[in-house]
Amino acid sequence: MSEQLGDLRGKRILFGVTGGIAAYKAVDVVSRLRKRGAEVHVVMTEAATRLVTPLTFRTISANPVHLDLFDEPKRWNVEHVELAERCDILVVIPATANIMAKAAAGIADDFLSTLIVAFDGPKLMAPAMNHRMWENPATQRNRRQLEAFGFVLVEPDVGRLASGAEGRGRLPSPELLEEEVASLAYADTALAGRRVLVTAGPTREYFDPARFLSNPSSGKMGYALARAARERGAAVDLVSGPVNLPCPRGVRRHSVVSTEEMLDRCLKLWPEIDILLMSAAVSEYRPAHYCNDKIKKTGEGLPPLTFTPDIISTLSQEREEPFILGFAAETGSEEEACGKAQDKLIRKGMDMIALNRIGGERGGFGSDLNRVVLMDRSGTESLPMMHKRSLARLIVQRVVHKTGEGCR
C-alpha cells in the first residue's frame, strides 16, 4: 500500500475521534498513518474517552491527546487555533451524527467542534452510526451541507451493526480509511485544466418492456476513476449506465441506458475532452428491433441480435488528440488474455488498456476488489489485487505520467 500511495512524512494530520462504537478502529488508522511517517495529533470528544482511553492514542500517536477546550495548554498559545493553523488536513474517524450536525451548523462547543470551525484546509469525515440514524433526513441534509462546505465524506459500509441490525452505517476498514486520508493529504492539481471523460457501469439493450441484455457491472471501477481524476484537479464528466452509486463530489454525471445513448452523450462531450477513461461494460449485442409487447415464453416474435456501436473506435476516429484508456474483460489463460487485450489496444486506437481477467475469484464485476494488467505500446505492468479505489488512483497516476510524456 505504501509504495502505491506514497509515504506521509512531513504531513501533519489533525485526527478527531468521536463517541461512536467504532472508535476502536481509529486506533488502527492512527497506527497506520504513523507507520507511513505522518505526524498525528489526536483530539477526542468526552464521549470517545468512554470507549477508548486517551493513553492508547497518546501511545500510538506519540503526541499529547487533546480533550478539553479549557485544559491548560501544552504550550502557551490559543491551542485550538494553533493546532488548526499548524496541521495540513483534518479527519474525523468515526464521525457520529452529532458531530456531523454540529459541523453543518457551525456549532463550536467543545475542543473538536471548535477545531472544525477554525480549520481552513482539507477536511474528511468517516460517518459511522446505526443505519436508521444514517438514513434520517436530518443526517442526510447535514451530509449534503458538509459536502457543499468542501468536506470529503467516506460512505459507510453495509453490514452487521453494533445493534445487531443489518444496514448501511459500518465504519469502513482501517486499510481503506488509511487510503482515503493519504489521498486527501496528497491531493494535487496534476490534471488541472484537463477535461476527463469517464464511462461507467453496464448498458441495457431492451427486447421488450420487461427484458434486456446486460452484464453484472456495478460501476464501482468507473466511479472510482471519476473520483480519482477529480482529486487530481480535472474537470470530470461521468457518463454512467444504470447503477446504484452516489455521484463523486465535484463530478458531473450524465445518466444513460443503452450503448447508443452512451455513444451519443460521449460524442457531444468529445470536442472538449483531453482524456477518456472507458471503463463502462457496454453490451456488445442488441436486439435488431424492439417489441412493444412483452414477448411470450414461446419465443414467438423474438428478434435476432445485432452488434451495438463500438464507442472507443468511433471516438478515436473522431479526434486523435485525446489520451484513451480502455478496459478489456477477458477469459482464458493470462497469455491468451494479454494477446487479446494487446490486439484490442492497437485495433481500437487506444493509448493504454487495463486487462481484467474475469471468472473465478478474481474480483472484477460487482466486487470491491480488482486486479488488472496495464498495457500500452511500450510494455505491460501487472498490478496486484487491491481495492478499486486504490486501483483507480494508481491508474490515474499512470495516465498523468503518460500524458506528461506527451505519448501521442
How many strand segments? 21
Percent of residues in beta strands: 15-25%
Coarse morphology = globular
CATH architecture of the largest domain: 3-Layer(aba) Sandwich
The Rg value, from CA coordinates, equals 24 Å
Decide which structural class fits the backbone.
alpha/beta
Largest sheet, if any? 8 strands, mixed
Provide a count of the helices.
14
Low-confidence stretches: 1-5
The N- to C-terminal Cα distance equals 31 Å
Could you give me the name of the CATH homologous superfamily of the largest domain?
Answer: CoaB-like
Helix content: 25-40%
CATH topology of the largest domain: Rossmann fold
Model description:
There is one protein chain. With 408 residues, this protein is an alpha/beta fold. It has two domains: 2-185, Rossmann fold (3-Layer(aba) Sandwich), CATH 3.40.50.1950; 195-405, Rossmann fold, CATH 3.40.50.10300. The chain is built from 14 helices and 21 strands. It has helices spanning 2-5, 23-35, 54-61, 79-86, 97-105, 111-118, 131-135, 137-148, 174-185, 220-231, 259-269, 311-318, 334-347, 388-405; strands at residues 12-17, 39-44, 89-95, 123-127, 152-153, 157-160, 166-170, 195-200, 205-208, 211-213, 235-240, 252-255, 275-278, 285-287, 305-307, 323-330, 352-357, 369-370, 373-376, 379-382, 386-387. An eight-stranded mixed sheet has the order 12-11-8-13-16-17-19-20, with helices on both faces. It has a five-stranded parallel sheet with strand order 2-1-3-4-5, with helices on both faces. Strands 6-7 form a two-stranded antiparallel sheet. A hairpin with a 5-residue loop joins β6 and β7. The protein is globular, with a radius of gyration of 24 Å. Mean pLDDT is 89; it is low at 1-5.
